[in-house]
Structures are given as structure tokens and as C-alpha cells.
Write a structure and sequence with these properties.
Layout: E1 4-6, H1 12-19, E2 24-26, H2 34-39, E3 46-49, H3 57-62, E4 68-71, H4 81-86, E5 90-93, H5 99-114, H6 122-126, E6 144-148, H7 152-162, E7 167-171, E8 186-187, H8 191-195, E9 200-203, H9 217-220, E10 228-231, H10 240-248, E11 254-257, H11 267-271, E12 279-281, H12 290-311
Parallel strand pairs: 1-2, 1-3, 3-4, 4-5, 6-7, 6-9, 7-8, 9-10, 10-11, 11-12
């Protein structure tokens, strides 16, 4: 009888901790076999997922004993939170546990993209070329970074880039004017005001109906042509087709995407990126390091165990 079902990768120490008390089924391949996952949910009291497992009404119907959904990460767009609340199922994200990893990814992407291809020069040198003139980029110091959203991860980005002599401007209508973050970040009162003079923009907002494609072709056109875009938030916030068109047309200087409108992207979705220069694509891994995986897994295991204990341990 399965008490805890884990459908995506989780740190082994956290799995072992749960296994000390509960009957745990850990199979990260289940994310690709929904039928098998549904068949294992009949006795499950907790389900632990990352971002690819959809927790919807079909899952809840298959799991009548479910009391907790652990999310190995922070975004909840793959979980029907309203439906979970309606069935008294606690949704337990790992808030804050991978923030450092994402912030470091953002800073790294900014540094790499500002240098315009210099870190991808190995194949040219191995081919006997010496393309110094073609790889003259820009320093990050002295540039202006726009942050769309000023949550925990964005604030860690602020700490790191300010140490690199970067000016930061932010837009977040949910942050009050007396918040201490405005002592370090210039406040923009609109998205156009945020983007107009930015050398780079980094996205830090959830995907909602209001933020879907908020960074579309019109918004991207507000950026200077040398500007770079970094998205570690959610793919749907950014219009990928418009971004690639701007890159190919020379209306943007570069981009790093760790998240996509469809994950993993299919062949048609990937085709839109063909020929886009100074582009970094990574598979939703910004928040996943050895250290963050341990922290995220441990936090979710603790939160799931607390709910199960309160509900009555098996």
C-alpha cells in the first residue's frame, strides 16, 4: 500500500527520511507515464511532484485518500490549487529553498550574454580560427538591469548584481512604497517605464492570466536593441515567437530561457529558436543544483511529514 507517491526526481536522503515512517513509492519515470501514476494513487495520502506532473481533477479523483501535494519547487501552475483546496488537500511548495541557485543562474546568464558569444568560442579555436574581433562584448558593470517582479529570488539577484556595480530598476505593483527594497532598486511605475532604458531584463513573476505574454512583441520593442532578456520564471510570461523574431532581426542583443511555454518543448516549439543569435536554452534547471535539490527535497519531505502526522500517521 503506497502512502507517498513521488513522480519526479528527489534527493535520496529525503526519500529515505520519508521511507522511515511511510510506505513510499519513488519512481521519477512516472512523470512520463500518467496511466501508471493514476493507477498507483488509490491509497496515496501524499503526492510529491516537480513541475511536469499535472495535479488536476483526474489525479484528485484517483486519489481519494490524498491530504498533501508536495511541490519540489515554487511554481504552482501545474497544480489545480483551487481543486485541492476544495478537497482539503494541502499544497506544499518548497518556498525559498532554491532561490540562491536561480539567482546565481540569472547573474551567470547576464555575464555570459553581455560578452556576446565569447564563452562559446571553443569550436572556433579548435577549428584553427582566432575570432577576437567578432567576440568583443560588453561589461556588466555600469549597466542597468530591469527586474519584473521583486520576490525573494529577485532580491537575491539585486544583492549580487549591485556588488558588480549594476544599476537596478524594478517594477512590482504588489510591493508597497515603504518596502526596504526601494532603497536599493529604482522604482518603475509601469512596464514601459521599466523597459525603456534597460540593458537587460530578468523576469520574476508567476504565470497567471494577467501575466501571460506580458512581455510580447510590443513590450520587447521598448527595449534598446542591445538589451538581453533572462527568463527563469515561467515561459508563458514571455512570447517566445516574438523574442526569436526580435533576436533574428537584431532588435535584441541576446536571451537566456530556462522555461518554456510547453515543457519539454516539442519539435515545432523548438523550431522557432532556429537561427536566433546569442541565445542560451536550458531545460528548466536554473533552480536545480546539488545543494538546492537537497534543500528543496528536505523541506518538502518535512512539510509532507507534518501534514501526514497531523492527519494521523500510518
Amino acid at each position: 500500500m503506497t502512502d507517498v507517491l513521488i513522480t519526479e526526481f528527489m534527493d535520496s536522503a529525503a526519500v529515505a527520511t520519508l521511507s522511515e515512517r511511510y510506505d513510499v513509492r519513488y519512481d521519477p519515470h512516472l512523470v512520463g507515464d500518467r496511466a501508471a501514476m493514476l493507477g498507483l494513487l488509490s491509497t496515496a495520502r501524499a503526492l510529491i511532484v516537480r513541475n511536469r506532473t499535472r495535479v488536476d481533477l483526474e489525479v484528485l479523483d484517483a486519489a481519494p485518500n490524498l491530504v498533501a501535494v508536495g511541490r519540489l519547487g515554487v511554481g504552482l501552475d501545474n497544480i489545480d490549487v483551487t481543486a485541492c483546496e476544495g478537497r482539503s488537500v494541502a499544497v506544499l511548495p518548497a518556498t525559498g529553498a532554491n532561490a540562491v541557485s536561480v539567482a546565481e543562474y540569472v547573474v551567470t546568464a547576464l555575464l555570459v550574454l553581455r560578452r556576446q558569444g565569447v564563452f562559446q568560442a571553443t569550436p572556433f579555436l579548435l577549428a584553427g580560427e582566432w575570432p577576437r574581433q567578432d567576440l568583443v562584448g560588453h561589461e556588466l558593470a555600469g549597466s542597468r538591469l530591469a527586474l519584473f517582479g521583486l520576490g525573494a529570488i529577485a532580491r537575491l539577484v539585486v544583492e549580487r548584481v549591485r556588488a558588480l556595480d549594476v544599476e537596478v530598476v524594478g517594477f512590482d505593483p504588489f510591493i508597497p512604497e515603504d518596502d526596504a527594497i526601494w532603497e536599493q532598486v529604482q522604482r518603475a511605475d509601469s512596464l514601459p517605464a521599466l523597459l525603456g532604458s534597460a540593458d537587460a531584463v530578468s523576469l520574476h513573476v508567476p504565470l497567471t492570466p494577467e501575466t501571460h505574454h506580458l512581455l510580447d512583441g510590443d513590450a520587447l520593442a521598448l527595449l534598446p536593441p542591445h538589451a538581453i532578456v533572462v527568463d527563469t520564471a515561467r515561459g508563458g510570461v514571455l512570447d517566445e515567437a516574438a523574442l526569436c523574431e526580435a533576436l533574428r532581426a537584431g532588435r535584441l542583443g541576446g536571451a537566456a530561457l530556462d522555461v518554456f511555454e510547453t515543457e519539454p518543448p516539442d519539435a515545432d516549439a523548438l523550431a522557432r529558436f532556429a537561427g536566433a543569435p546569442n541565445l542560451i536554452l536550458t531545460p528548466h534547471v536554473a533552480g536545480v543544483t546539488v545543494e538546492s535539490n537537497q534543500a528543496v527535497s528536505a523541506l518538502v519531505a518535512t512539510r509532507v511529514r507534518e501534514v501526514l502526522d497531523q492527519d494521523g500517521s500510518s
